[in-house]
Design goal:
Layout: E1 13-15, E2 30-32, E3 35-37, H1 44-72, E4 75-81, H2 87-98, E5 104-110, H3 115-121, E6 127-131, H4 140-150, E7 157-161, E8 178-184, H5 191-194, H6 196-200, E9 204-208, H7 220-230, E10 235-238, H8 247-264
Length: 266
């Protein structure tokens, strides 16, 4: 259960496209490290203690994931955004253009459906869908279970597309090396200051749908200024997943980071 919004992990399922559900939680309250996570808490102190317990457990699992990724030199990215920003489209375009050159694996996170996993599967890229049920974010143990099925090879790139949400995913480390926040110019300039935790926790900010800029009353400089107020270390990529504009710079960054990751882990 999320310590902030109260969403649950009941009904989590981890599936490959075109297969029956093979990992389903049955709706009972979950026990992690001896603490039962249910929905009965109502007092402030109890909720705060529960949140600490959840995040502590998640961070332990994230450290395990990170150790595995580093040992196998798997460069792992956590893609986060609000719904409709174009995360899946950016991922699709990236895979189409680079899959012959680099080894990609994908974990898709959504509350329901295998729609996004089916899109990735159509590109002949290994993919696992994690359906979070009532949950509004992925957690590190979900990634651990998905990776066991996915079995990514060494010297590869693992793309984790998180549930569309700019709030709760910011709290949950998945063991990734880099967090990439994606925002489209149709969302307005003030998202970074409305949802500062997400932008503060990110390493990269991809600004998508740049092809629509001539048709919108949108101030690109203001968006970047707001983002830099929250996190002055952010690196920006201005792209259009539809036209391919700016994607080459994003690709060059990916290749460079994969190589740097390999050197660091040898």
């Amino acid at each position: 259960m999320c310590g902030v919004c109260g969403c649950g992990t009941d009904g989590v399922a981890i599936n490959k496209p075109n297969q029956e559900h093979n990992h389903n939680h049955d709706g009972h309250s979950h026990v992690h490290d001896g603490h039962s996570h249910d929905h009965s808490h109502s007092h402030g102190k109890t909720i705060i203690d529960l949140e600490k317990d959840i995040l502590s457990h998640n961070n332990i699992e994230a450290a395990r994931n990170r150790g595995y990724f580093e040992a196998k030199n798997i460069f792992t990215l956590n893609l986060v955004s609000s719904p409709g920003s174009g995360k899946t489209s950016i991922l699709e375009t990236t895979l189409k253009d680079l899959k012959e050159e680099l080894n990609f694996y994908v974990i898709e996170g959504d509350q329901q459906t295998l729609n996004d996993a089916d899109r990735i599967d159509a590109l002949n890229v290994p993919v696992i869908q994690v359906n979070t049920g009532k949950g509004c974010h992925l957690e590190s143990d979900m990634i651990y279970d998905a990776v066991k099925q996915l079995k990514p090879k060494e010297n590869s790139i693992l793309m984790i597309e998180n549930v569309g949400n700019l709030v709760c995913p910011s709290m949950f480390d998945l063991g990734e090396q880099k967090r990439v926040v994606i925002i489209s110019i149709t969302e307005g300039e003030d998202k970074p200051i409305k949802y500062p935790d997400m932008f503060d926790s990110a390493d990269i900010c991809i600004i998508n749908k740049m092809d629509l800029l001539p048709h919108l009353n949108f101030d690109l400089a203001k968006l970047k200024n707001y983002a830099m107020q929250v996190n002055h270390h952010l690196q920006f990529f201005e792209v259009s997943a539809t036209t391919g504009e700016g994607m080459d710079k994003w690709y060059n960054w990916l290749k460079k980071e994969l190589e740097n990751n390999k050197i660091k882990n040898t």
